[in-house]
Write a structure and sequence with these properties.
C2orf69_mit, globular, two-stranded antiparallel sheet, alpha/beta, Rossmann fold, single chain, 337 residues
Length: 337
């Protein structure tokens, strides 16, 4: 199902649901095939369209944002507003510019309020906490490519005005100044676990020969290789868990990334965004320790790879008492430029 909402001529805001077979991450089915083996992933996207031809445009950036656990019934207007995927999408567009496509992805499964990103991470606890991060099978990157592909199919088959123009002229998409659309990955709260999984997959892929060869321009990544090689930035947005694993602390992964970036004259940026809600939580001190560990590993490798690997730490609401509101408000105030 696709719901079209009004927006500017340069982009249209679209919310839809994607149905997925549990056993096959890369394959999706329609509503008519709904059965017990199907799970539902909700995507909210802000996509560029041409005001003249009403065709989809190739963006300069695809920003993919992974949400956290559900928080409901707080009575706090800030939390409620920034829990809404449409508002998150609009906020990111306002930060990155109108040439950006934004995809906000929610978990397919919830155990109560706990998000379970089971299509992206190979092994989870019942509360959605990762048992490990394993690049085997490239689970997260393959899932993202499948989701984006199905989303674009649904957009072009569900909007009559858009589908007519696109079918009549399939090459009508307009190239922007960038030779390839970049991908920016953002993980908020538990969504940071998907960032960790993607970082491990990125390290696994770029260590292979010829991995940096990209030949075609598309509106969105069409393969796991295309996705991973298009990533220019990873953003951890106030991530945290009730156990270890919120931040990646495997030095071998970061070292592999740095070495490959240097050899291939490529670059990658990590930004760690946080608030006292997570980084100053005395009941969960491992969050700050893990953050410091990752930050130091990245800084060490930055010096070794001549700045090809970049890292920034950004602390918000630093002098304020930890609160749930600041945890969500970081989405609005964070600097991702």
């Amino acid at each position: 199902m696709v719901e079209i909402a009004n927006s500017t001529l340069r982009s249209t805001l679209i919310t839809w649901k994607i149905l997925q077979y549990k056993s096959l991450v890369a394959y999706f089915t329609s509503d008519s095939s709904l059965n017990k083996s199907v799970s539902c992933i909700k995507i909210t996207a802000s996509l560029m369209i041409s005001p003249s031809s009403r065709t989809l445009l190739i963006p300069s950036i695809n920003a993919i944002f992974f949400c956290g656990d559900k928080v409901q019934g707080t009575g706090n207007s800030v939390i409620e507003r920034l829990s809404d995927s449409r508002n998150i999408s609009e906020s990111i567009v306002s930060k990155l510019g109108s040439s950006t496509n934004v995809w906000v992805i929610e978990a397919s499964t919830y155990n109560g309020s706990f998000a379970l990103y089971k299509e992206f991470i190979p092994s989870l606890t019942s509360r959605g906490e990762p048992k490990q991060y394993d690049p085997s099978g490239f689970l997260a990157s393959s899932a993202i490519v499948s989701i984006l592909s199905r989303c674009l199919e649904q957009v072009t088959t569900s909007s009559s005005n858009l589908i007519e123009q696109t079918r009549e002229n399939p090459h009508a998409t307009t190239l922007l100044s960038a030779p390839f659309p970049k991908t920016i990955i953002l993980g908020f709260s538990k969504g940071g676990t998907v960032v960790n999984q993607l970082v491990t997959e990125y390290a696994e892929l770029i260590s292979s020969p010829q991995s940096f060869d990209r030949k075609q321009v598309h509106m969105y990544p069409i393969s796991k290789e295309d996705l991973l090689l298009s990533i220019s930035e990873f953003h951890y947005v106030d991530v945290g868990l009730n156990c270890a694993g919120a931040y990646l602390t495997d030095h071998s992964v970061i070292k592999e990334i740095a070495q490959c970036l240097l050899l291939n004259n490529a670059s990658l940026r990590f930004v760690l965004h946080g608030t006292p809600r997570q980084w100053s939580d005395h009941h969960r001190p491992w969050i700050n320790r893990e953050k410091d560990t990752l930050l130091q590993m990245l800084k060490d490798e930055t010096h070794r790879c001549e700045g090809k690997l970049q890292v920034e730490e950004r602390f918000y609401f630093i002098n304020m008492k930890p609160s749930l509101q600041m945890h969500f408000e970081i989405i609005q105030v964070m600097d991702i430029t």
